[in-house]
Amino acid sequence: METIGFIGTGHLGYPIAENLLKAGYTLRIYNRTREKALPLEQLGAILVNSPEETAVKGGVVLSLVADDKALEAVATDALVQALGEGGIHVSMSTVSPDISRELSVRHGKHGVLFVGAPVFARPEAAAAKAGNSVISGPAAAKERIRPLLEAGFARNIFDLGEDAGSANVLKLMGNFMIAGALELMAEAFALAEKNGVDPRVAYEMLTTTLFSGPIFRNYGAMILDRKFTGNPSFSAELGLKDMDLVLQTARKSYTPMPLANLVQNRLTTILAKDIHDADWTALASGALEDAGLAV
Predict the structure, then answer these.
(1) Is residue 295 part of a domain?
(2) Residue 232: pLDDT band by 50, 70, 90 thresholds?
(3) CATH number of the CATH domain containing 131
(4) Residue 241 catalytic?
(5) CB 185 within 8 A of CB 223
(6) For an engineered disulfide with 55, which of 24, 43, 48, 82 has Cβ 3.0 to 4.6 Å away?
(7) Among candidate residues 146, 162, 178, the one where a domain is terminated
């Protein structure tokens, strides 16, 4: 099997890298905090000291970093030159559509193909290879990387065409809809509690009938249990970054999104209270507190 570059082994990148190693791929891994990637050496990973050292000429580099700034920091000219003609850079990060489009153009000048392939999965779903991927970019590059996405985390892959930014638009849509569902459930559970209805009974009825998807089941349970803080797998800070990107994209296309403004404010409030170990489910605490309920 070919050697793959991998940049970013955080909460989500780590299980994906682990799956790829177990599938037989050789990984050249760069992580800004080297210590976090050390356990992967036991599975055969090669740890390197810079993003460009992950690349093999004409090969594939997967990157999964926090935001636009972090992606810019690793998607350097040095990385592009190391990949060379026929190389592929796959960005699995949740970033703005604009940065993907810019990088696609910049990479293309050197014969390197760029694919946007943001991950739909929390870490535990990625580890179980039960996640979803949306991809956009050149057709040949997408076909080549499909086995990597499937081996790393993806149960399903959805192709959005050749515009490198399209996958990022859909990823932002998905995260916005999850955030909206968190607010929806928090308000509904607050209504139950304030009117003498056991919210757990309401949760069981609603999430096994009308709202039976995993978002309602999994996140609904976290809201009921007030699991808002402590070693988050997706932090409130990252959630706020995503809502900022949603509204940035909405402004550029003149798309009113009042619910996005509300959940952005909920997340801002969490961080304003200096609750920096909060999962983004903590945005639900706003509706509960507004109703006078304990969090």
Answers:
(1) no
(2) confident
(3) 3.40.50.720
(4) no
(5) yes
(6) 82
(7) 162
Structural domain includes residue 255: yes
Other Cβ atoms within 10 Å of 51 Cβ, number: 22
Structural contact between residues 59 and 83, judged by C-beta atoms closer than 8 angstroms: yes
Domain extent for 85: 3-162
Name the DSSP class of 25.
-
Residue 118 · residue 167 · CB < 8 Å: yes
CA 54, CA 9: separation in Å to the nearest integer? 13
| Phi, psi (rounded to 5 degrees) for 29 | -110, 135
Count of positions (residues) in the chain: 295
22, 171, 252, 273: the active-site residue = 171
- How confident is the model at residue 78, as a pLDDT? 97
Structure-block tokens of residue 290:
């507004």
Residues in Cβ contact with 288 at an 8 Å cutoff, skipping those fewer than 6 apart: 186, 189, 190, 294, 295
Residues 156 and 218 placed together within one structural domain of the fold: no
Q: Mark whether 148 and 186 lie in a shared domain.
A: no
Q: Is the pLDDT score of 135 beyond 80?
A: yes
Residues 156 and 16 both lie in one domain: yes
Q: What is the pLDDT of residue 1?
A: 81
Rounded CA separation 162/136 (Å):
5
Amino acid at 153: F
Number of domains in the chain: 2
Are the C-beta atoms of 78 and 22 separated by less than 8 Å?
A: no
Q: Are residues 82 and 181 in the same domain?
A: no
The domain spanning residue 263 has which CATH number? 1.10.1040.10
pLDDT tens for 27-55 read 999 999 999 999 999 999 999 999 999 99
